[in-house]
Amino acid sequence: MTLNQFLFSEIIKPGTVLFLINFFGLTPVFGNVSLRDSLPQPIPIGTSIPASKITIEKMKELKEAGIKYIQVTVNEWFDQEGSFKKAYDTIKEELLQAKIAAQKGGIVVEGIHMPFGRFIDLSLTDEASRKNVISLHKKVLELCQVLKPGIILFHPSWFLNPGNREAHINQLIRSVTELEKTVSNMGAVITIENMTGPEPYLTRNGVTYERPLCSTNEEMLQVLNLLPSNVYAAVDMNHILLPDRLILALGKRLKAIHIADGDGVRELHYYPCSGKGKNNWTSILDALYKVKYAGPFMFECKYNDPKDLFVCYQYLYQKFIIEKYIQPEYQ
Ligand SMILES: [Zn+2]
What we know:
- There is one protein chain.
- The protein is an alpha/beta fold.
- It has helices spanning 3-11, 56-64, 88-105, 127-144, 165-185, 217-226, 243-250, 281-290, 306-329, and strands at 45-50, 69-73, 108-113, 151-154, 189-193, 201-204, 207-210, 231-236, 254-258, 297-299.
- Helix 7 (243-250) links the parallel strand 8 and strand 9.
- The protein is globular and about 65 Å long.
- Zinc ion binds next to loops.
- Zinc ion (ZN) binds at residues 193, 236, 258, 300.
């Protein structure tokens, strides 16, 4: 039995969901019955993908799987110390090919997930190091311009040296304010992603680190309030427990999402229909509609087949419609 068959035969009983159809134009699952106009409409889906994987074959495969958007990750361009591994012109040529592949495959580049790491941290307190990070990001933005991204997504920081949180926040504000001009000149908007929390400290290999910035709802809002109003937020559903609360708290400031399941503490990036993880997807979808989130349902999770992403979105959406709109009418 395929996953598709399993989800639709075991989890959603076809006979109970007559209104649910092939609203994406793929093979009908429940027959040709229209979704009621008054219900929240499904949103397009996307997936994150490393720049080097954007080939025409891959783009066609995604398109056929019902995926419309990609968010491009570029960490692969950098070594452990945060230096470019490839020549600028080599990357430039690769991105030109990626742009052609996306266009030919009918896939839209939603945005760029900017590089991050210990040495690629916008909040570094050493000013010379921070300036190097800014010039690295400016190079990445210059390279990525060819893809015409709408969203430029940054992590607010890496793990912090304990006791310097306020200094890191100040450096982040300085960096984002500076990069915002470059990003708006390329016709895109900056989003800052929430990080894992909420415990303040974590020990790795015997070394204690302070959690990255924006690892609680309060700090995410605090940081955004210190930034220009044209800087937006991204919510990663596997970085926090009850992400719906953060979505609602951010309201119109939410411009990007990362879809994965987890425990809110570690980077687990579970496939949301794996049965693993703690997220309540009906609450998350409800929150996204409440704040009028207008972007794609951007998966950033482990998966085997891109069609599984489409199946999973359909399942989560249909479950949401049933639980929030259909079942209450029959109570
Ligand atoms: Zn993420």
